[in-house]
Amino acid sequence: MSGLVRKISNLRVGTKGKVPARPISPAASEIKINEKFIPVREKMEAENISQAAISAFESTFNSLVAGETGIIPEVTISPAGGLLTVEDDIAPNITQNPSLLSETVVLKLNGGLGTGMGLDFAKSLLPVKGDDTFLDLTAKQVVKMRKDFGTNVKFMLMNSFSTSSDTLEFFRKKYPEIADEKGLELMQNKVPKLDRETFVPATCESDPSNEWCPPGHGDL
Q1: Which molecular function GO terms apply here (predicted)?
Q2: Global pTM value
């Protein structure tokens, strides 16, 4: 919070001389940040977003208001040493045990729209190999794994409010055997978009859904 603390210049009161400068205390700065978050909290609570998700977003919000960017300069990152390699360190020690697949979940992160590419649907629905989309390839991999190992490996998608309907409709049409499975979808939370100058929740009267965005894979 030190970035928020501002020093008050010396003041002269009447003829009694100078009043010593007093910086705003960290506690006072904290109060100001908390006050800024009030409309954000109220908006999230109105959408029945969990308190855990609200608290997580509040922490990020406080960092934003304090001027933090979340950027890690590359010069501060050191290469990792002593990493294991699949070929030399891992593969020789692996013994296949298909029974473990019954305790395994294949979880695909699927919460993003292709807005950066001018799309308004889940980017996983883009064709990438012939007529197959990313989701086609994923579904085929799951189906083949189940067939090869004779085990119904659990499959889940971590969707967002932006991708849920498109994705579930895709599976209903092309892979109904997967679409009918219980617990196919793990839904991300959502967080409000903010005005970059005032940090108040953004509004879009023509389409209120544009006032929200997925919190990203960190929500996992």
Answers
A1: UTP:glucose-1-phosphate uridylyltransferase activity
A2: 0.69
Q: What is the mean pLDDT of each run of 10 residues along the chain (220 residues)?
A: 34 39 52 84 95 94 91 91 81 82 92 76 90 96 93 93 92 95 92 94 93 80
- Is the separation of the CB atoms in 160 and 188 below 8 Å? yes
SS3 call for 85:
coil
Nearest 5°: CA angle at 65, between 61 and 69? 85
Structural contact between residues 161 and 185, judged by C-beta atoms closer than 8 angstroms: no
pLDDT of residue 80: 86
Strands 185-187 and 154-159: parallel
And the tokens for 177? Answer: 């055997």
Which residues, other chains included, contact 121 with Cβ-Cβ below 8 Å and sequence gap of 6+? 113, 114, 163, 166
- Cβ burial 53-84 (10 Å sphere, 16+ → b, else e): bbebbbeebbebbeeeeeeeeeeeeeeeeeee
The backbone torsions φ and ψ at residue 194, rounded to the nearest 5 degrees and listed phi first, read -120, 150
Tokens 């473990």 map to which residue? Answer: 100
CA dist 97 and 101 (Å) reads 8
Helix (H, G, I), strand (E, B) or coil at 191: strand
Which ranges of the chain does DSSP label H, i.e. alpha helix?
A: 26-46, 51-65, 134-149, 164-174, 176-179
